[in-house]
């Protein structure tokens, strides 16, 4: 069965989450290192994940300001979604409003009493889970 991939795009890392085959729950998968200055957006790593996990849809978090405007981070996500559409033309790529997802992930990790160091290692992956779960909940 097909699955959905959720991505939290940053300048140095991309948090990756994947849905279960029923499309009900999101699980954190990994955090990819990227180097946007060198035009390394982790597309080869994503290609392997897409193949291994049988991905048919990719949801890219779109950070917006509280007034609904799109800033530099949002423009980066839009650009990244366009790269995905070019590289993977058979995969549906959608942008998902991710306002507050990173803060929600941070709060969850704080409640789990993780140290700052441990939080920094998983925050992007956890934000990807919040992005993907929000998207999946829209359909369930």
UniProtKB/TrEMBL annotation:
It is an enzyme of class 3 (hydrolase). The keyword Protein transport does not apply. Pfam families: RuvX. Residues 2-105 form the YqgF/RNase H-like domain. It is found in: Cytoplasm. Keywords: Cytoplasm, Hydrolase, Nuclease, Ribosome biogenesis. GO terms for biological process: rRNA 5'-end processing. CDD domains: YqgF. Its EC number is 3.1.-.-. GO terms for molecular function: hydrolase activity, acting on ester bonds; nuclease activity. GO terms for cellular component: cytosol. It comes from the Bacteria. Could be a nuclease involved in processing of the 5'-end of pre-16S rRNA. Belongs to the YqgF HJR family. This is Putative pre-16S rRNA nuclease.
């Amino acid at each position: 069965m097909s699955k959905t991939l959720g991505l939290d795009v940053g300048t140095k890392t991309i948090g990756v989450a994947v849905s279960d085959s029923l499309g009900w729950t999101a699980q954190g998968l990994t955090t990819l290192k990227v180097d946007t200055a060198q035009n390394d957006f982790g597309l080869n790593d994503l290609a392997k994940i897409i193949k291994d996990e049988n991905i048919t849809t990719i949801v890219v978090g779109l950070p917006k300001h509280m007034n609904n405007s799109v800033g530099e981070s949002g423009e980066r996500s839009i650009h990244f979604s366009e790269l995905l559409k070019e590289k993977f033309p058979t995969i549906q790529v959608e942008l998902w409003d991710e306002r507050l997802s990173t803060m929600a992930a941070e709060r969850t990790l704080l409640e789990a009493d993780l140290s700052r160091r441990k939080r920094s290692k998983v925050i992007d992956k956890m934000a990807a889970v919040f992005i993907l779960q929000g998207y999946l909940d829209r359909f369930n």
